[in-house]
Predict the structure.
Amino acid sequence: MKVFKFGGASINTLERIKNTGDIIKTYEGEKILIIISAMGKTTNALEKVADAFFNARKDDALQLFEQVKASHLNLLKYLITVNWQQAENQLKDFFTEVEWLLYDKPVRSYDYYYDQIVCCGELLSTALVSIYLNDIGIKNTWVDVRDILRTDNNFRDAYVDWDYTAEKVKTHIEPLFTDTDLVITQGFIGATDENESTTLGREGSDFSAAIFANILDAESQTIWKDVEAVMNADPKEFPDAENLDVLSYREVVEMAYYGAQVIHPNTIKPLENKNIPLHVRCFLKPDLPGTVISNQPVHGLPPIIVLKKQQVLMSLSSKDFSFVEEKPLSQLYAMFDRIKIRPNLSQHGAIGLLCCLDDKSEKIEKLALAASEIFNVQLEKNLTLLTIRHYTEEKIKALTTGKHILLEQKTTETIQVLMR
Ligand code: ASP
Ligand code: MG
């Protein structure tokens, strides 16, 4: 059994959906669970619907939703010839689920409505792709993942109930493979025990795929992306970025932790725990090998660079010249936990503490206010956090010359520099 995950870019046009079908066809005879994201920028579009609805702009919400409907119906028209009526009915059922809600008034939390609305992107994309594949003779079974993947009700960042989900996979997914080689379902979404839809956080489909790979004891997981491989830097910022053929789980976890936008950070643990290799491959060039990520340590990696922009430096110092010891520190960490913000870098001295954080304005304001109860607080914005794994002195110099350095931290493997 293999697990494939196709991202939104692999299905955002007619040609790309056909291309995805061509890739799947080359695996004829193999058992594959296929996880698919919402098409192209659908999730962003649905976020706008949720915003409008929650801010009492019902007409805007309905109109924005019309655009999502139109783009899917339009694709359907050109994509599906035999089973178009079935496809149209299924899409319309999902449209109705959302519209029914949009005609109401918001009485619950924003995050709740966000999940009820945004989950529709994955339902629509998977239904379309599944029916298209059946249409062209690639037999598959479509599953509503909300019947399988159970979560708590922490909307927008729901926590997976592994035991319940594993049980459902055993009783409801595994048996499907006796009659079909391909099962298609949604990434990113799940449901609570009260059948409310939930989401696992943006870009969560990689993680969904890893959950299934783990439970199904898959031989491998493949993430099909629009890049040739995982690279050692963002090629938009660094034109000389190189492809990395092999990486260890450890390296990828570290890269994701420091903010590299490679793979959803939660993806590696379920795979590592069952020693399942992860392939990152290019759906535009399926002949390329891409990157293989496994438990094998990899030596001689080039410097791996992660740049995080829009950083804030929060400088905290004790109000009465007392030491910053366990008590104020634990109070501060309790604030991080409550406000759900995590420092990307922190350093403390005798009476002061420096924290570098993402500039999520609302959270930063809350944190600054709460921290000012125990510390003097100063903020500096518009900073960049540079992380280099496997650094060399030349690389550090090349990337920091001419910058004003505010904070620096170094281990034998990794250097982090906060700069202006
Ligand atoms: N469609 C969701 C997003 O755009 C989930 C995913 O693509 O992984 O964030
Ligand atoms: Mg995506």
Remarks:
- The first helix runs from residue 14 to 25.
- The mean pLDDT is 96.
